[in-house]
Amino acid sequence: MFKSFSMDLAGRTLTVEVGRVAKQANGAAFMHYGDTVVLSTATASDKPRDGIDFFPLSVEFEEKLYAVGKIPGGFTKREGKASENAVLTARVIDRPMRPLFPKDYRNDVTLDNIVMSVDPECSPELTAMLGSAIATSISDIPFDGPCATTQVGLIDGEFIINPTAAQKKVSDLALTVASTREKVIMIEAGANEVPEDTMIEAIFKADEVNKEIIAFIDKIVAECGKEKHSYESCAIPEELFAAIREIVPPEEMEEAVFTDDKQTREENIRQITERLEEAFAENEEWLPLVGDAVYQYQKKTVRKMILKDHKRPDGRKIDEIRPLAAEVDLLPRVHGSGMFTRGQTQILNACTLAPLSEAQRLDGLDENETTKRYMHHYNFPSFSVGETKPSRGPGRREIGHGALAERALLPVLPSEEEFPYAIRTVSETMESNGSTSQASICASSLSLMAAGVPIRSMVAGISCGLVTGETDDDYLVLTDIQGLEDFFGDMDFKVGGTHKGITAIQMDIKIHGLTRQIIEEAIRRCREARLYIMDNVMAPVISEPRKQLSQYAPKISQIMIDPQKIGDVVGKQGKVINGIIAETGVKIDITDDGAVNVCGTDQEMIDKAISIIKNIVTEVEAGMIFTGKVVRIMEFGAFVELAPNKDGMVHISKLSDKRVAKVEDVVNIGDVVTVRVTEVDRMGRINLTMRPEDMTADLEKLTRPEKREERRDRGDRRGGDRERRGDRERRDDRREKREENE
User: Fold this and answer.
1) Whole-prediction pTM value?
2) Annotated binding residue at 486?
């Protein structure tokens, strides 16, 4: 049965259509937010997947370029693999949804979102987040929802709910918050050094809106919701746990897991697992469950020791950070490098600078963003965790971690006008035991400063964890969680920022939400740790950006020209600009507003290219001095190229302060000479002089009319010379045209 539901959301109409399309999915919501249209579906397999010990949830966000009136590029002319934005959106949908499914549910579930129409005023990402929650809530798939999501911007100190594309460009905050009826379940943020108190206020402003959306979803579920289906539980039998405790007492498990060395702990657990597998070798029912049972046993042990005894696996205090270290200049030939170590987590970051033409080109649904100037990439090789597997390129986790570090550093980067470079930082994970994304923020900050990128402030990142008990008041926040505390804990609350405020947040949880008290404490703990890292670890190594770039980094100089002169610099079919590039070996980028960026490793060649460009766009006037190449020699004088397609003539009488019998006695083709303009006649012809006395003469003297008798004496000869010169120039023009046509 087709039904339609509508509500006002941030001044725009949100409409949900149920039963109109995709009726064979377990649940489907045809979402309309303004003119943005997204089809969200939820589908589950009939039976659990065999041989797994996790919930197999897949979330997709499919960007169809017809939604913005584009045909995809490339040869195939169809959408290919998911863009980075699609991957990040899918991750944001996944994080609040996953904890609301039963922990022992093993049926495959796919949440698919197809973007079919995009209204710049209404975010397709937000529409898909709401659509996934609605589709799952009305389906027969077990789900402890609904949840809702709201975006918040900050413009001139005012919070904007679900900002438009134009508002996002000028906003100091890009915050996404998901909530259940009672608590906040997911936070994702990028910010321009927003103070902690303002961030907390924004989070709970979004939480209020989420509660209104959930009330709307409840009405849809009441009318269209299906009864949730039963499923085969994959929970570990209590009898197995009891048998394991007989073989491995709780005291032995505590001793096995509570060590500050990851490899030692893993070896201890491996030995315990082998003992249990031997003990249950004859029990075909329990043997396949031993691995998951040992995991659960570890989890209960760690949580109990942390929450009840305030004892962490590596012996640290609850608010203590692991041992820290920072270094720069590890890689001698890169433009900048930095390494940050926190316990057994270590990131080596390399910074590369390039001209703006090497910025990443984007082909997605956002028509306002076509290039990305700053790129942060994160790599996680298997050796970093002592494993072996082939490298197949970055997965969703690597893309997400790189994007988080990128978001944290963007607010402190200089503008293109201040620093006209494309910038890439790459974080290589040398060792991993929790919070590599936050170590990437620290290492990137070090490498950027070492490279001489004039960032406004250093940035650091830290992660806090959480272990909860039976009630909302029974919890413990942990500063700087390691891998074991992340695996067995309830939260991974990552915050990056400067001394002034927050630049990025990402919160993952495994429970049904956080109270305001927990969020405020986590943000406070992250600030304390962040300031300690910057002041006591990073600043002693490098406290501010270097004043000079690396000798191996490209140098870029920028000048502004009249946009109407761009064609003169480029030339017909690029002939002029390509000639400059060939002569100097530089790269030249020109923007529509007349900004010319000249890039190269040799400053002398950069200066030469700029001089040529300036000569091209400068209107030649009497008195100007140029340095140019002799390109033609005639009986009556020499022609000097002042700029491409701009020649002037030095008459034989102006070659020297002495009498010259033959032009070749003074100059030859290819010579570079300094000349001064004596006259630009009515026909645009440029007359030059090389005489030393003319170089310093007053302009009035240089351009005054010659005596009548001198003009009469030379009149016939000059007239003949000019006639011959005109014939020669016309022949040269015809020859050039023939060459171009050929």
Assistant:
1) 0.84
2) yes
